[in-house]
Amino acid sequence: GWGRAYAQALREQWGHLDVIDTAAGMRAATARGWGHPDRMVPIGGSAGGLTVLLLLALHPELCAAGVSLYGVSDLFELEETTHRFEAHYLQSMIGPLPDAAEAFWQRSPINHAEEIVAPLLVLQGSADRVVPKAQADSLVGRLQGAGRSVEYHVYEGEGHGWSRAEVVTDELERTWAFLQRHVLRRHR
């Protein structure tokens, strides 16, 4: 993390402040010459996956592709289905419902799926109780329906994060192959 002050600044700003902060960092990398939108690929898991998906949808000019690991795509669905440890967590991170319904809608990548044009790799655990597989299924279905380039793999028995070394190895190999196909090959 970026410390307590940043975490407190995210209160009711999650899915907004973190996305514009990351986009600003990507723009700064481009301006300084050590990053280029044709090669920048945000990769993140869970909340970081939400950031990846929103970057792809709202700042497509910055992203060559994206990788979402068990990422949040529907905040309303998350509020209804996440396990009890994180129940009501979104009330502080986005705002209380129904008052924050517009923010929930705007910050849910599922509602912007058709705006995602860069290739996307989605990796998900079948037994994820924090961000259930249905979130990835819905997002991938929307992307496929819109004719977008999306690769999807579900790790059977895995939860929110990977617990087996062979799954970690597979994730890294899949990500590398995805980057070779969609980013590196364009620059050879």
Description:
The protein has 188 residues and is of the alpha/beta class. The chain contains eight helices and four strands, in the order ααβαβαααβαβα. A four-stranded parallel beta sheet has the order 1-2-3-4, sandwiched between helices. Helix 2 packs across helix 3. The N and C termini lie far apart (35 Å).
Topology of helices and strands:
Blueprint: H1 4-9, H2 17-31, E1 43-45, H3 47-58, E2 66-69, H4 75-81, H5 89-93, H6 101-106, E3 120-125, H7 133-145, E4 150-155, H8 165-184
Parallel strand pairs: 1-2, 2-3, 3-4
Strand order in the sheet with the most strands: 1-2-3-4
The Rg value, from CA coordinates, equals: 16 Å
Alpha plus pi helix count: 8
Low-confidence stretches: none
Distance between the termini: 35 Å
Order of helices and strands: HHEHEHHHEHEH
Instruction: Sketch the major β-sheet.
Output: 4 strands, parallel
Amount of helix: 40-55%
Overall form: globular
Average pLDDT score: 92
Q: Give the structural class.
A: alpha/beta
Q: Which assembly state applies to the chains in this document?
A: single chain
Number of strands: 4
**Share of β-strand residues:** 5-15%
Write a short abstract of this structure.
It contains 8 helices and 4 strands, in the order ααβαβαααβαβα.
Spell out the key features of this protein:
single chain; 188 residues; alpha/beta; four-stranded parallel β-sheet; 8 helices; 4 strands; 45% helix; 10% strand
